[in-house]
Fold these 4 entries.
Entry 1:
Amino acid sequence: MLYGHGGNIRETARQVGCDPSEIVDMSSNVNPLGPPPGLIDRLHLGLGEVGRLPEVDAGASIEAMAGFLGIGAQRLASGNGTTQFIYMLPGILDTRQALIVGPTYADYASACRMSDVRTRLLSSREEDGFQVDPSRLEGALAGVDTVFVCNPNNPTGVLVPPEQIRRLCRRYPGVRFVVDESYFPFVTERTARSLVGSSADNLLVLISDSKIYRLPGLRIGFLYASKATTRRVREAIPPWSVNALAQEAVRFLCENEGETRRFVRSSARKMEEQRNAFSRALRRVPSLAIYPSRTSFLLLGLPAALRAPEVCRRMAQQHYLLRDCSNFDGLSDRFVRVSLQTGEVNRKAADALVEVLSS
């Protein structure tokens, strides 16, 4: 298991000597505007369900989400967050050589290691703003049977145009492309369409309800794939992987489809506004690199004299928890990630960060 994710509020509070409620968590990539209205009330009403076993295969939730997505339920599996699928897929796909497009979320490599899968990292270049070079990606496919792409990417926020991935799927039918779209709901470009619904048999798409709906504690994830792959995943997944409250949350979101879609669109627009405002505030710091993002977070390249552990420590003293990116393959201790909150919190956090970076 990999340690070193964001969201370690209790440990940070212990270190700085405050109550966990005083820590502003800007290290965990969840929507600060969520959960959607009415969802928590629905979960309160559903608490009685914890006294009974949930549906063993989450079949009703799968049917509901398939209808919401406009796809056949035979191409959808449900699990205990997308992380469960990430760790299952190398074994299910009989992966021998994986390519990981980075710098990115470390669990793809961790999952491959646990299944004794060889991996190669194709790391995008800092001088290119961490944009993925399609020719480099295509050139790296030789000898590879599985590719992991986080899109938009964590921690860079970069979006690979989905049509580029569709084209690669067509050109390389013998390669499986695992595309993690956990942050795709934050994308505001109307021209960028999710890969869910694609007919490619070698495409697998991870879908998360944790990020956009702010439900990380419920662990709700889906996998979209070919019927044959979905059947293999369903056969391998342990019984009762999706708990009763998580299934209730899925039903609520899908039953209230209009309100849910409005919430997603509104959240994406508002986070784009917050991202732009936060970026403008940080431009007061000379030589700070602010990388363009399509998500609810920003990757920052620190000025040469500064290092991430010290910056994060000093921000924690002011009760702001940032993500030290030192343990991302392809990055270093010169990078931090900031997950945005709402307006006034962001303004104060930006002021505090400018002070830390300028002193």
Note: The chain has a mean pLDDT of 96.
Entry 2:
Amino acid sequence: MDLRKRQRTGLPLLVAEVGFNHGGSRETAAAMIRAAAEAGADAVKFQTFRAADLALPTAAHFELIRSGEMQSDDALFLAAEARASGIEFFSTPFSLQAVEILEQAGVPAYKIASMDLVTPYLLDAVAATGKPVILSTGMATLEEIAAAVERLGRAGAKEIGLLHCLSLYPARAEDCNLAAMAELKQAFGLPTGWSDHFPGPKACLAAFCAGAEIIETHFTLDTATEGGDHAHSLDPAMLRGLVEDIRLCAALQGRPGFFAVRPDREFAPAYRRGVHAARDLAAGEVPGPGDLLFCRPLAGLSPADMEPLAGRPLKRAVGRNAALALEDFAG
């Protein structure tokens, strides 16, 4: 998985976060993979867990979590579905067993959820695979992030990406603080992006414009579906619109080296001022300001070229409106 895609192409690695919006249905999950691929996402991400990996049975959200459980062989099925759809499949493991399942599925990368940024055994297990790790930083201090990055590297992670994330569902605009991505980039020098919990696509587009190299946004087939993360997810039409808007913004932003290849340079002769005779001028005359027109098109001399020629006589006659050239002047 190319965490540095934006450096090569100008476009971010765009991840459609299915999470557990499939409601435990293999068929729904497969349909979501196909829809995400058709919308233009680079990767689709799931969550691999048992409810008991995450919460006690007495927890208020235990049943909601359990509704998103899948069978261990579903990862193999979904990975195959993703390959057939031309999109990368990976997942967030919430247990050591989940890492084993995802290794069997051949995932190209791992995601660490914000809650597990401070879970050493899970960081170690994921890093030991040697695959890229995308780390969400919700709820974390810079010191905690630094400790997690150091541990991942020490345990074998060769490539790490950081996602600025708010563990708020949904997040409010005033809480998003996309400038934090720059802080993460400055502090760690790693591929950096945005894990989105803001309703609709606008925060993702703003994150791209703020420099996000990775964008992860929740995905659903229908935002009106009850439960899960549906309400603050993007549906296929919104995801497609986001892809199109990001491509447009990337085209607008361009790449370094603009001044060597700027496309409007060819229009300079038509748009800049040249030096033209305001009347018929005879050989030997010294043209004064009233004898010259500084107007389009640029041909021969420009107004700036006239400064060192001030006071010089003409070597030949020049007709009205004709462009003056350096060789028209004596000396």
Note: The longest strand covers residues 13-19.
Entry 3:
Amino acid sequence: MERPIIKIILITLFSLMVGVIESNDEVSNFGIVIHGGAGSFSDLDEKAINSYETGINEALSAGYKILEQGGSSLDAVTAAVVILEDLPLFNAGKGSVYTEMETQEMDSSIMDGESGKGGAVAGVSKVKNPVLLARKVMEKTEHVMLISSGAEKFAKEIGIELVDPSYFYSEKNLKRVRKSKEDEKLGTVGAAALDQSGNLAAATSTGGRTNKMTGRVGDSPILGAGTWAQNGLCAVSGTGHGEYFMRLLTAADVCKLMEYSGLSLEESTNLVVSKLTQAGAEGGIISIDSNGNISAKFNTKGMARGYQTNQIPRTFRVYKKN
């Protein structure tokens, strides 16, 4: 009689052990959302839309792979934005538009939701990937932002790749500024991510606005305006009329409405975009919360964006209904 009892006990213990193992193997929600700028996108044909999709998907693949393998949200947003900076299609890095003086001045920022630290650079013209330098400002200095030649001096000292300004040359962008046309794509690129440890991060990078005044800096390198990440709440990256984003602290507002008013991510982003509209600003925001919920809201005709989580299959869109 003792053997059957022992057998039952062993089976029960084994079942409990299996249950514990399965419980430990459960993966927390994680994911990434990316944007490639907002605007009218009125002249995009199918070939152009496919180009945007290819670029966004390449960035998504890089970022999501890091998250899927248990990597950090900081590494994911960095990898995604680097890819977008290297593609001339987007207004950041290689594709940066020209100032009134026919030069390029790039801005970028990154923020870690776990530590609350952030780094930014503004007005750089020789840094191949401004987001990499922004991250080094966060990690290697006691500062939050470095600008212009000072930022480039720091880049040289720590081995961040510098290039001749000719690297950023674009005949299309040069023609646009010489016609004094405002770029209808409110160009910025950005990413926001949640990793399996529950840490949030966001990064944003831009070449600014076509024909902008030399020395003009928008919201992209400003923590709270164009970029924000706060563990337990959300991570946000914005694109649009930067002056309004700075006045309204748009990126941080999304998280703070959740924190102080108890709003959901959906409710918060809807309210924040309505504030932009009321102020007369155009633009959009992408965000992900600590539960892996995604939001991509904008008041323009289109915003190139894509997202993927362990619960949501990869999605790419430009217009509101496509």
Note: The first strand starts at residue 31 and ends at 39.
Entry 4:
Amino acid sequence: MRVRSVTLIRLLPRALLAALVLSLLISCETISYYGQAAQGQLSLLLAREEIQTLLDDDTLAQETRRKLALILEARQFAKESLLLEPGSSYLSYVELDRPFVVWNVFAAPEFSTRAQTWCYPIAGCVSYRGYFSERRAREFAASLEREQLDVYSGGVDAYSTLGWFDDPLTSAVLHRSDHALVALLFHELAHRLVYLPGDTTFNESFATFIEQEGLRRWLQGHPQPGLMAQLEREEQIDKAFIALVSRYRDELDTLYAQSLDEDVMRTEKAFVQEALREEYRGFRQEWDYRGYDRWFAGPLNNAQLGTVASYNDLVPGFAGLLRQSQGDLARFYAEVTALSKLTIEQRTALLSEAGL
């Protein structure tokens, strides 16, 4: 992959800043973790190629060309119609030698659904730890399991640096359908607009809602026969899945609140997990849908159940807030900005009320 000198020149000030931040963090976290994070991010930035330059290359594979052109079109739509702020992100592309760009590790206590958090500068405290190497993610996950924590990990094909760098598109996402690729772009750009350090549920629920609303508006101008009906059905299935998992997560919360012997608690927890698996078997038949099979092949532990909450719990609240704004995104963003100045408890309560 060619590296153009202009990219490197543009990168140096940010890279030096990142190195300075890293040096200040060594007392808080291991050199090893921050070292891999800095190296991984730098490798992405150095491997970038301008999408427009690639599109001018006659040897570019036709399907890759079509997907990259779609990204540029969706990026412009996000700026003009969704009032997002892409900056210079997603104007470049990186061909990866791996299926995912990073692997995230989640953890929670054995008898609590409250996710463990890790704190960083810029991003604040979040409920996962990311690695650019699958091996290192697995090693970290194993170390957490030795501490008797519930652990869940998985690959991620895109993430946002929140405007600190000009994020590239990577080959990890090109397998997605057109509408899924566009939705992903809207999700990641939403993080550039609104991000509250330390409130993962607010951040991810907001981005998920913008992804959904942005795709709905995009498809109004890019109609595809049968796609809207398909997406409406998938949305119904997603809501049913979230309700199913949330119900069992609440059941575990009730269990953990009891004063039980640990061995008894462990046995009861296993019963709840198996009941969830059993109900999912009926879910598959009812909806004739197998899209969650891989997810249900996981441990269904506290860490895994918490990932569903992070991305979805406040989505109905943001939908209600947009309705209150009569669909006006500028007003909606102003309301979201006002919420961001409140405490977590205050904004969660207001969003929960708006979602009723």
Note: The first helix runs from residue 5 to 25.
